[in-house]
Amino acid sequence: MARYLIRRLMLAGVTLLLVTIIVFTLLRVVVPLVYADAADIIAGEYGRQDPALIAKLKEEYGLSASLPRQYFKFLNELAHGDLGRSLFNGRPVAGEIKDRLPVSIELGLVGLLSGLAFSVPMGIWAALRQDKWPDYILRTLAILLNAVPGFWLAILIITFGSVWFNWAPPLKFAYIQEDPIAHIKILLLPALLIGLTPSAGLVRLMRTQMLEVQRQDYIRTAHAKGLTGGQVVSRHAIRNALIPIVTVVGLTVPSLAAGTAIFESIFTLPGMGQYLVSAVGNLDYPVIQSTNVIFAVLIIASNLAVDLSYPLIDPRIRY
Hints:
Elements: H1 2-34, H2 38-47, H3 51-60, H4 67-79, H5 93-128, H6 133-147, H7 150-164, H8 180-214, H9 217-224, H10 229-266, H11 272-282, H12 285-313
């Protein structure tokens, strides 16, 4: 296991390096060619007509150096834990991320856990009631949830809630250490909506895996040994059916990260997603680069955790 972990960590380092190269190249090379660069955005519509002002801004924000020098400066600062300062408000990016990252992680985790809490039991129930009314209802519900975008449903809830019930989500965010009840009220709805989309596919996958496992020889042997139906399902069927579910959960982490950006903007939550969206609109290079690196670290760590969890689910698996 130690050798496997070392190889994965080395691969993670290479992956992060490629992420920094891709993000830096897109921001500093591709975007200026097709749109504008940060100096143009800061200067504004009239300032772009003044070459001296543009040159001064580039010199002030370190954008006048060659691209390799800018990249290695960014890489060196990143290696020392310095994420730079925002080009627009001058605030340290590390401080902003420290305040916003827990909000996004909590939102994504609660959304993922709520989706699993719904999809796994419902998938098992649908498999145990194959071709009966619970199975038909749950399959129809899964297809419906898969077809309805979560952000569209969020907009509908806010719109009709305000029109029909005089209700709107809280505009002022409350941290859990300040007001736990208000914090739960603010995060619960967007977290549940984030979990809808992955739960739709997980219900169908869990049902399919349970049906496949129930046809295996060891399940028939367990029944022949005198175990009850509940014992067979809990001891043998569920654990073997969960392996593909765990794999899919690891693959849904990038979509959850993207989902938090959308829902944070809809519900005005001070998370990483909203921070990144506003930075993209302003071409705030340090913020965009740093947030993408943080998201990449979270995705790589979640995939590594998924891979390491396989032997805990099925002891027959070895690294």
